[in-house]
Amino acid sequence: MATKQLAASPVKKVAGNLSKYGIYIAFVVMCVFFSIFNPLFLTPGNIINIVRQVSFNAILAMGMTMVIITGGIDLSVGSVLALAAVITASFVKTANPLLPVPVALLIGLLIGAACGLFNGYVITKGKLAPFIVTMVMMTMARGAAQLFTKGRPVTGLLESFDFLGAGFILRIPVPIYILALVVIISHFILSCTKTGRYIYAVGGNEQAAAASGIKVRRVKLVVYTFSGVMSALVGIILTARLNSASPVLGNGYELDAIAATVIGGASMDGGKGKVIGTLVGALIIGTISNGLDILNVSAYWQQIIKGIIILVAVLLDKKD
Amino acid sequence: MAYLQLQGISKFFHGVRALNQVSVEIERGEIHVLIGENGAGKSTLMKIVAGLYQQDEGTILLDGQEVRFGGPLDAIQHHISMIHQELMPIPYLTVAENIFLGREPLNKAGLLDKKKLIAQAEELFQMIGIDIDPRTEMRRLSVAQIQLVEIAKAVSFNSQVLIMDEPTSAISDKEIEKLYKLIFKLKADGVAIVFISHKLDEIFRVADKITVLRDGDFIGTKPASELDKDTLISMMIGRDLTNIYYKEPVPIGEPVLEVRNLTKAGLFEDISFTLHQNEILGIAGLMGAGRTELVETIFGMRSADSGQILIKGKEVSIKCPTDAQKNGLALIPEDRKKLGLDLKDSTGFNISLCDLNEFNRCGMIDKKTEAARVDDMIREMNVKVTSRKSPVVSLSGGNQQKVVLAKWLMTAPDILIMDEPTRGIDIGAKTEIYKLITKLAQQGKSVIMVSSELPEVIGMSDRVLVLCAGHLTGELTGEQINQQDIMRCATNQVASVH
Predict the structure, then answer these.
(1) Architecture of A62-319 per CATH?
(2) Both B367 and B457 in a single domain?
(3) Where does the secretion signal sit in this chain (chain B) (predicted)?
(4) Does residue B226 sit in the same domain as residue B276?
(5) Is residue B117 one of the residues assigned to a domain?
(6) How far apart are CA B149 and CA B380, in angstroms?
(7) Any CB–CB contact under 8 A between B318 and chain A?
(8) Alpha carbon of A28: minimum distance to chain B alpha carbons (Å)
(9) Which chain A residues have a beta carbon less than 8 Å from that of B340?
(10) Strands, DSSP E only, in A146-239?
(11) Dist. CA B204–CA B198, nearest whole Å
(12) Do A207 and B339 touch (CB under 8 A)?
């Protein structure tokens, strides 16, 4: 009996750690797997390529992580991204630059902030489900972007603007620097500030948080606004990279951002989630696409495989 | 031989004894009232009979046969139904659909036969004399009507034992009459009825027999005709005061909190009182008297309709718990799992949550100082936990309660409001909490202690306020603080708030 128990406990411990570090292990295994089958996978060029591609989703996912930790969801990120993109782009056309680039950027970010603030305001004031409110914003912001551009992409933008999306510093693409900055800021907010604690507390037990003197409403306004700003930021970088802003930009991006957050260990019930987890979640999604591309797996299969990976990640997390 | 026999039933929750060797016999065609203070074990005993809990010891005999129920469905199949205090109707289904949920009549094609469903419900209502249209959606009904529907449902299961947990606590006098009529009819039909109640007047009106429980112990069963109110009260409360209350007299100081004419329609009316420095003010009353609502209003969790709150002589406006905290108030809530703790996070996370401003250095939390303070608090409060990083959900009830106390003591409040501070915790933790309360009073803090446990109120309070149906029905000091006087005030039938 006793020996049996002794034998069982380390196994249990390993299993526990496996689920705790599951996504990190899965990520490493995946990288090893792809590099065995294709030596091109682990080259600096491809790695940079992956991280740049991932950066857009990962930045969105940082905002999503905060929202999901409070127990909410933000479906509007893809549309808010497009709205901020087309408006910013319209100010920096080569033919007729209306505003200096920094001012245009600021306005773009403010549009994102305003959309997020609206989400937070309606959710808290109207006591409505975040799913519904952000879905409404998703529709409205997309419509507004279409209306603003009459359905046509805004093209021909200033070269100084393109730097944000297409530029390099020390041979590394600018979006990667922006991603790093956003990750550091998000991590700082969640683990080092009072607001971060309150974000976890609101998601952990909203009623108890309120009874503890936490201004729950303010916390929610902060996270939705942050998510809006992240959306706008991605809209701007994408526009700069493509040198054009289409009103259909970012369609469906909310789902990848949610997927990255969930793979990263956040709970849809709130109270749980980590910036680093989400970052790895986004990297996993990006790596699958890239690796399967290199292995010539069809896009249809890729979607199925992505679905399976999300499912496994969530099931593993449940056991924890 | 009695139809339903409970023999030596015991039940433990997390090692705490809720029922101790309780034996009760219930006959067909009798109304058997179960009475006792809050926490006496009435509901637990009946939930065992209804299959919601399983007893740890003892046997249940139904019509001479031993039975053991795996779940409520088992009990229903043995014709035992329970009408809970909290009714659980499905709001958007009709009355008929609610009654026959899970046993809907089907037509030949295997689809719902709605006509037959309505007809069955109408037939049932006619039989027992209920006047409700079975096509109505459940959410349109009053609490009393829902109760009648629940009883009808029990009848439709051909229930021979009907258990009702405080059925009259939330309904008007007129509706109570209708309920009685139905109950008396069922009794005449030979149904055994168990009726849990707090209302002494009501008990003598309906009861054939009365069983008293106290602290999980069986005290006695007697025919109602052999009892009177005073005997009943002394059976309910008559226990020795064991000396676990570390109350030491402290000179009472200046007024710190004054509540003037505080009113919230439907909950409490015109409540005025003063709390002094160094004072422990007990608030007693039965369940539903409005005690929790009153203190939650003072703490800004609910808004009052009218009235004033003064702190140290100055009128203050407390609109939310943040305002209350700024004014030096702390509230230890009644339901620690719902309002006191974030069960998804660690012990330390919970302890420092209310007081993060103290550790704020240029927007960053100084985690080192925070950890040191939290560890101090864990030691000071004697919270039994491996580390501050342990999840708070893994702690016992008593230790969780200490975490809630620690969390609020971190804010260094002047006035502590404790709502049922020792509910559901073991005797050791209770003793520690009593010592703490005494120490706080000695340190110059003021304490409001809402409690349903009379010995605790009597053992700890300098002064006791008693609420009954939202009214302040007594303010007792000195010799007046005894069980008889408190119970008399608590059952005082003042015109109810409506």
Answers:
(1) Orthogonal Bundle (1.10)
(2) yes
(3) none
(4) no
(5) no
(6) 53
(7) no
(8) 29
(9) 208, 211
(10) 154-155, 168-169, 172-173
(11) 11
(12) yes
Instruction: List all residues of chain B from 394 to 423 with a beta carbon under 8 Å from chain A.
Output: 407
CB distance from B321 to chain A under 8 Å? yes
Please say which residue of B208, B237, B266 terminates a domain.
B237
Is B165 domain-assigned?
yes
Tell me, yes or no, whether B273 and B189 share the same domain: no
Q: Check CB contact under 8 Å for B365 and A201.
A: no
CB contact under 8 A, A213 and B356: no
Domain boundaries, chain A: 62-319
CB contacts of B321 in chain A (<8 Å) are: 210-213
Question: Between A and B, how many CB-CB pairs are < 8 A?
Answer: 70
Complete DSSP assignment for A222-244: HHHHHHHHHHHHHHHHHHHHHTE
Same domain as B405, residue B277: yes
In this structure, the answer to whether residues B221 and B314 fall within a common structural domain is no
B237, B272, B290 - which closes a domain: B237
| A71: contact with B, CB 8 A cutoff | no
Burial of B389 (0-12, 13-18, 19+ CB in 10 A): exposed
Q: Which of A193, A214, A271 comes nearest B345 by C-beta?
A: A271
Tell whether B125 is covered by a domain.
no
Number of domains forming the structure of chain B = 2
Expressed as residue numbers, the domain containing B273 is: 255-490
**Is B132 inside a domain boundary?**
no
The pTM is what? 0.79
Q: Based on the domain organization, do B181 and B293 belong to the same domain? A: no
Return the H-helix or E-strand segment holding A263: helix A253-263
CA distance A231 to A115: 10
CATH number at residue B62: 3.40.50.300
Long-range contact pairs involving A249-253 (C-beta distance under 8 Å, separation at least 24): A249/A81, A249/A82, A249/A85, A249/A86, A249/A145, A250/A77, A250/A78, A250/A79, A250/A81, A250/A82, A250/A85, A251/A78, A251/A82, A251/A142, A252/A78, A253/A56, A253/A57, A253/A60, A253/A77, A253/A78, A253/A81
> In this complex, do A194 and B357 lie within 8 Å of one another by their Cβ atoms?
yes
Query: Are residues B259 and B217 located together in one domain of the fold?
Result: no
Both B367 and B395 in one domain: the answer is yes
Question: Measured between CB atoms, which of A192, A213, A271 is closest to B322?
Answer: A213
Put simply, whether A216 touches B (Cβ < 8 Å) is no
Residue-level pLDDT, tens digit, chain B, 498 residues? 789 999 999 998 766 788 999 999 999 999 999 988 766 888 899 999 999 999 999 999 999 999 999 888 899 999 999 988 777 788 899 999 999 988 888 988 889 899 999 999 999 999 888 889 999 999 898 888 888 898 899 889 889 999 998 887 767 777 888 889 889 999 999 999 999 987 777 888 899 999 999 888 999 999 999 988 778 877 877 654 456 677 788 889 999 999 999 999 989 999 999 999 999 999 998 878 899 999 999 999 999 999 999 999 999 999 999 999 999 999 999 888 899 999 999 999 999 999 998 898 988 999 999 999 999 999 999 998 889 999 998 888 889 999 999 999 999 999 999 999 988 777 778 888 999 999 999 999 999 999 988 888 999 999 999 999 899 999 999 888 988 889 888 887 443 433
